[in-house]
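Tokens in:
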């Protein structure tokens, strides 16, 4: 834990790094909330991405669902890891790869 009295730049940097890592992990955990029961949100947008196969696609390509039609299945890989572009996550290769590394 950072002790401001230690006056150590290294300690301060470690404290900041730890806070950033924890924050990023908390944000990444939020992705699953946007990939379940997401059909109503996907119907309002044109683009989506899958953090399982890391592909992006038009929402019109989604043809399979689960959870009684409430959760989209990826049209490329068939996994329920689809994020609408209206989620707080950027739908790009970098973000999808980070989410994939965490969840899979």
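Residues out:
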């Amino acid at each position: 834990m950072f002790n401001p009295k230690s006056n150590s730049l290294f300690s301060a940097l470690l404290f900041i790094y730890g806070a950033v890592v924890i924050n990023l992990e908390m944000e990444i955990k939020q992705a699953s909330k946007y990939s379940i029961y997401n059909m109503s949100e996907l119907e309002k947008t044109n683009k989506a991405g899958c953090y399982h196969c890391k592909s992006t696609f038009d929402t019109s390509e989604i043809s399979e669902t689960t959870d009684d039609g409430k959760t989209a299945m990826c049209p490329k890989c068939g996994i329920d890891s689809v994020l609408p572009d209206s989620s707080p996550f950027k739908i790009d290769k970098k973000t999808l790869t980070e989410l994939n590394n965490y969840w899979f």
